[in-house]
Amino acid sequence: MNSIQDSNILILYTGGTIGSVQTAEGGLAPLDFSEIYRHVPELIQDELTLETFSFEPPIDSSNVGPQHWAQLASIIRDRYHEFDGFVILHGTDTLAYTASALSFMLEGLHKPVVLTGSQLPIGLPRTDGRENLLTAVEIARTRLLDAPMIQEVAVYFGSSLYRGNRTHKESAESMQAIISPNLPALAEAGVDIMYNQPLLFRDSAQELKVHTTMESRIAWLPVFPGQPMEIFERVLEWPELKGLVLSTFGSGNAPTDPHLRKILSQAKERGIAMVNVSQCSHGAVHPERYATAHILRDCGVIPGEDMTTEAAITKLMHCLGRGLAAEDLWSEMRQNLRGEITKFSPIAAVN
Ligand code: ASP
Question: 264-276, pLDDT tens digit by residue?
């Protein structure tokens, strides 16, 4: 039975459109977050205790990076026992990256961390920010029997709740800007909030363990028809490079160019961890399906299965940040750590 009881929620405001108001000159300026109750008075409720924390100054999410993810994860760790749940207000542009990164940073999470944002500022009459914020708070308060309903990093946007590491920003225009291409919504907010309970993630680790080190010395390269192989050469010759995410065609295919094979094998020998994700927003990579995928399999590129690019990039940063040796990194990238993967292709590690 779902219920909402007396709850303590921490709202962390990082910046982005949701927290902006229109200035007299017609531009947008960040909201003084202590004024949030003036814009959303419905937050004042008898059985709800809210505390707010704001980045100073608030930042556009294009400027959010690993140090901000670490800051958010550290606040959640330090204040974990004080609150029933956490709501993070974030710009939509990189919201999917932050949600993915936090999911890997917060191992053994058993409380809700719900990210949301909006397409229109909270100070405008047609804003989607109020509904997103109010419903995110309600979701963070919801309990199932004696435990939080949501015990993972999730994103609430445009009436759907998604697993954070499955999200992707699809539209710069629509109020349904965020999608979860490979996993159905965890909940839909209509008249009632309907939870898809069998999908909810439960971490087998009982204790919260926070990993704040992310390795940023990685690259992300798409393949495209007619691509000069020199691009791969140039990127992979960076002496400090630790990892590469390749965005390939369809179900994980790349040109069968002997030059590419040579470049990738040399990178593998140098210990660069390489992951393959599809350029398609829906579906998974299949390292065995087409001959055009074998080149990647033979060069030890790790199949990213049905992970989003955002999840693959942040998971690689996380696994490299933990200093895992090559074989452990291969198996950890192939593990379903926080519900970020559903489909697995049978393939052995190439060492
Ligand atoms: N540029 C903004 C940001 O991501 C857009 C938004 O909030 O929707 O911070």
Answer: 999 999 999 999 9
| CB of residue 93 inside a 6 A radius of ligand 1 | yes
**pTM metric for this prediction:** 0.95
Asked if 321 contacts 213 with a C-beta cutoff of 8 angstroms, the reply is yes
**Structure tokens given for 125:** 């009459």
Spans of the chain below 70 pLDDT: 343-351
CA of 245 from ligand 1 middle (Å) equals 25
Ligand 1 in reach of 92 Cβ (< 6 A): yes
- State how beta strands 2-4 and 273-278 pair: unpaired
CATH superfamily to which 2-210 belongs: L-asparaginase, N-terminal domain (3.40.50.1170)
Q: Which CATH architecture has domain 218-334?
A: 3-Layer(aba) Sandwich (3.40)
By most ligand atoms within 8 Å of CB, the mutation choice from 20, 89, 93, 97 for ligand 1 is 93
Residue 30's pLDDT is what? 77
Query: Which residue ranges does the chain devote to CATH 3.40.50.40?
Result: 218-334
Of residues 308, 218, 290, 304, the one with CA closest to residue 254: 290
- The span from the CA of 349 to the CA of 333, in Å, is 11
Q: What pLDDT, on the 0 to 100 scale, is given for residue 348?
A: 56
In the chain, list all ranges with CATH 3.40.50.1170.
Answer: 2-210
Alpha helices in the chain (DSSP H): 36-39, 66-78, 95-105, 129-141, 229-236, 258-269, 291-298, 309-321, 326-334
Contacts of 1 by beta carbon, 8 Å cutoff, 6+ apart: 144, 145
Which pLDDT score, from 0 to 100, does residue 276 have?
96
Span 62-82, pLDDT tens digits: 999 999 999 999 999 999 999
